[in-house]
Amino acid sequence: MTSSPTIGVFALQGDVREHIRMLEGCGATAVKVRRPDELAAVDGLVLPGGESTTMYKLATTFELLEPLRERLADGMPALGTCAGMIMLADRIEAGISGQLTLGGLDVVVRRNAFGRQVDSFEADLDFVGFGEPFHALFIRAPWVEKAGADVEVLARVASGPAVGRIVAVRQGGVMATSFHPEITQDDRVHRYFVDLVMRH
Ligand code: GLN
């Protein structure tokens, strides 16, 4: 792979612009992905936060669902953030009736896991491989309820009622965070992903 991978951002729904800015800041070429031919041209893909139920429906309507599943099954690296984490989970809890995912990560993810009182919150996380804590923003976030043997846990909630809950994972080239790394000034999660794409 060249030193500048092309990374797509799934752009049917969610916070696309922020991810593009982050990826470009990390030296990648970032493009929006809305069509199968755009998906075919990328080295890796970001699935942003937003609303996973809507994302799933739009992916079906735009005939991206099967191409996405095929590329993931083929080993395309991917980063899912918040709703994107839900999309990448092999199994979900508290989905709406009939809600399906793309899969790719051997995890059970619970939607809206932190409950109503803590819809949105911020927390400092110890993230594997980062020297300093990562200040994370959570918005109606999911958590990883169960992770398979091949899944590396990258971060857990450090304190409070949800202490110990898994909020970042990686399995091969596929990674996901419960929080929104694109709306901070800290680009270490995106840098981690760009490196992952370059190594795959
Ligand atoms: N609660 C949303 C969902 O279920 C995720 C929220 C987010 O991406 N910020 O898809």
Q: How would you sum up this structure, described in words?
A:
It is built from six helices and twelve strands. With 200 residues, it is of the alpha/beta class. The chain has one domain: Class I glutamine amidotransferase (GATase) domain (Rossmann fold). The protein has a seven-stranded mixed sheet with strand order 2-1-3-4-12-11-10. Strand 11 and strand 12 form a beta hairpin. It is globular. 44% of the residues are buried. The mean pLDDT is 95. The structure holds glutamine. Glutamine (GLN) binds next to helix 5.
Order of helices and strands: EHEHEHHEHEEEEEEEEH
CATH C-level class is Alpha Beta
Low-pLDDT ranges: none
Question: Would you count the extended β strands for me?
Answer: 12
Briefly note the CATH topology name: Rossmann fold
What is the number of independent domains?
A: 1
- Output the CATH homologous superfamily: Class I glutamine amidotransferase (GATase) domain
Please compute the radius of gyration using only Cα atoms: 15 Å
